[in-house]
Amino acid sequence: MQPTHPLELIQPDNLKRLAGNLQVLIKSRLWLQIFIGLALGVVVGLILGPTAGLVERETANAIGDWLAVPGKIFLILIQMIVIPLVFSSVILGLAASENLAQLKRLGLRLAPYFVVTTALAITIGIGVSLVVRPGEYIESGLVTAAMETEIPKVDGALTETPSLGDLPEKLVEILPQNPFAAMVGKEMLQIVLFALIIGLALVTLAPEQSRPLLDLLSSVQEVCMKIVRWAMLLAPVAVFGMLAQITARVGVDVLVGMGIYVGTVFLGLFCMLCVYLVIVFVVSGITPWRFLKSARDVQLLAFSTSSSAAVMPLTIKTAEERLGVRSSIAQFLVPLGTTVNMDGTALYQGAATVFLAQVFGIDLSLGALVLVVVTTVGASIGSPATPGVGIVILATVLGTVGIPASGIALIIGVDRILDMSRTAINVTGDLTACTVMDRWVGGKSTP
């Protein structure tokens, strides 16, 4: 008897095996190794940094650069496989769909859901920063000291806000004329759209015609996750080296002075988590405690790796086995969500923008705040699900409201811990979306 879907014999076993590999890392207390790396990195950084004054600045910077090598290798390994991983996962997820009618219902509900939750996350981030006003707790001397820190380079074209007349052309440019050029340029939204088109075409083909390509993509997905697992072995050493380098450069004064800002972002992320719990309970009846217990492993590994793409197989497995989401929905939505559903990152953008505006004494009008929301929604959707991408997106957002991008140097010192935290919220948002869409498209399955 011929299977209903050509993917049935391919993806489930692969995903379970890959997710099992990631769970081995959890059972080996990867989270504890990460925290030890964090603590040791800060301690070593303080010894090398200007606070202790035990090592000359030039020597400390050289040592910090060497300590950061494992971290750079870790980031390169993750970035290396993000594009093939997302591309193959989106297509395989589409091929796992029950029928075209389900895809249509899912798409019509999913797009507005992602936009609304992303906008809500940004609004929460802006709101908590306006209430707490963390920028008023930063001394001007700390700002001057932090400006010596290297900041990411951003193409000036990215910071230009398109006019109304430019929108038709911009919308057309979203579709990739040259998919390979989009991959080289890491245009994630274009890559996802290309994968969606290929996946939809495969769904309409007979199983014997689509199976060869699906077999190939399944192998690509498994190879990518093998590389992810290798990268995870480096995670504790990578976190240690990167924290040591950053702390050595900025010193303890900046880290302590940024405590209010970090607490503000944490408050916003906690509020967003509460929103998720309310949404899940209202839509599906799953209690907050059960949802958090089910999502615990995914949140922990996402926190450890700072990459929602790295934990994608475990997210899919959790949605299917612990939250009762149908495979056809989980295997399509989670790969898509790692690229376009970045609520934690979006919230961070809003909070950081208001914070830096307060630091520089810039009064953001209501129109400027609305512009921040709109720009951040666009910048967050389609961004790579890799560590540190939030900083680059932030540089784009700052340019739209006249805030100096050089202010990013002030928050680089604490971005690692915030990156880990917002990634945990990102994957929680993916699980929430899976639960909601599973109910909204009908035929709720039983866990």
Number of folding domains? 1
| Biggest sheet descriptor | none
> What gross morphology would you assign?
globular
CATH class category name: Mainly Alpha
Report, as a whole number of angstroms, the end-to-end distance: 27 Å
Identify the CATH homologous superfamily.
Sodium:dicarboxylate symporter
Strand content: under 5%
Structural class: mainly alpha
Rg value: 22 Å
CATH topology: the name is: Proton glutamate symport protein
Q: pLDDT under 50 segments (min length 5)?
A: 1-10, 146-162, 443-447
Question: Topology of this protein?
Answer:
Elements: H1 11-27, H2 30-48, H3 57-67, H4 69-95, H5 100-132, H6 140-146, H7 167-173, H8 179-184, H9 188-204, H10 207-257, H11 259-284, H12 288-305, H13 312-321, H14 327-340, H15 343-359, H16 366-380, H17 389-400, H18 408-440
Quickly list its features.
447 residues; mainly alpha; Proton glutamate symport protein; 0% strand; globular; disordered C terminus
Task: Quickly describe the structure.
The protein is mainly α.
Structural features, described:
This protein has 447 residues and is an all-alpha fold. The protein has one domain: Orthogonal Bundle (Proton glutamate symport protein). The chain is built from 18 helices and no strands. The longest helix has 51 residues. The chain is globular and about 70 Å long. The N terminus and C terminus are likely disordered.
